[in-house]
Amino acid sequence: MYGEKDINLERKWLGEQRAIIAVNNLQKKNINAQYCANRREALTTLLDMIPQGASVARGDSITVEQIGIIPELLNRQRNAVIDPFRWDAEGHYIDTAEDRRQMCREAFFADIFLAGTNAVTMDGKLVNVDGLGNRVAAMIFGPEKVLLVAGVNKIVRDVDEARERIRQFAGPLNARRHYEQHHCDELAGLPCVRTGRCVNCSHDWKICCYWVTIDGAALSEKGRINVVLVGEELGI
Helix, strand or coil for residue 205? Predict the structure, then answer.
C-alpha cells in the first residue's frame, strides 16, 4: 500500500545531486573529489588511496571513526599510524597532553593526513574551525597528501551557511561531546556547552579559535587535497 512514511530514497537522491555539484566545483579548483554511495564504499576508496609503507596521521573526526579506517589500517599492519586521539573504553585520553601535542606536530611530516571537514560548499570550498589549529594547519601545508571524508549532511550552499552551521550546530555539539564523552572538564564553562547556542564568546577554552576557508589549491599542489563525499549522514 502506498504511503509517504519513508523518504529515505529521495533524501539519498538529493544528497547525491548536491554532492555531484560540489565534487565538480572542487575539481575545478585543483582538489581531487569523488562521491561514494555509503561508508563501506568510502572505506575501500580511502584504503586504496593509502599505499603500503606510507605514514598516516589523523585529525580528530567523528566521521573518520564512523568510517572505521583507523582499525583497518592497524589490522593490515602496512602503515605507521600517528593518532593523538586515542581513548580508553571510558573516553579518557590514553596519551598525555604533551605526547598528544608532539604527535600533532609529527603530523606535518606524515605522508598522509586523514581527517573530516566541517563543511563543504556547493561552489567548492572547504570550511573548518579548530581550537588548536593543528587540523586546519595540516590541511593547508605539511603532509604530502590530505584525505578528507564527509557525509552529505556537511554540504551547504555557501561560506555564510557553513559558518552558521558550524557556530550553531556542529560547534556546540562538538564541545559538548568533548565535555561529556571525553571528560574535558575545562569546557564546562563554555556558553555553547551550557546552552547549546554560540554567542561568539571569548572564553579561554573556546574550541573555535581558528577559522579556515580553503578555496582551492595552488596548481603546484594540484591533487594534494582529496575529498571523499559519502551518501550518508556522518559526523556532526
Answer: coil
What is the CATH classification number for the domain harbouring 210?
3.40.50.10420
Share of the chain above pLDDT 70, in %: 98
What is residue 3's predicted lDDT score, i.e. its pLDDT? 59
| Structural domain harbouring 53 | 8-230
Count of the separate structural domains present in the chain? 1
How far is residue 186's CA from residue 199's CA, in Å, rounded to a whole number?
18
What 3-state DSSP class applies to 15? helix
pLDDT digits (tens, 9 = 90+) for 118-145: 999 999 999 999 999 999 999 999 999 9
Q: Which residue has the cell 551550557?
A: 194
In a domain, 108, yes or no: yes
Which phi-psi region, left, alpha or beta, contains residue 103 (left: φ > 0; alpha: ψ -120 to 50)? alpha
Query: Which residue intervals of the chain are DSSP H helices?
Result: 8-27, 39-48, 62-67, 69-76, 97-106, 134-140, 159-165, 171-180, 191-195
Angle (CA) 214 37 135, round 5°: 30
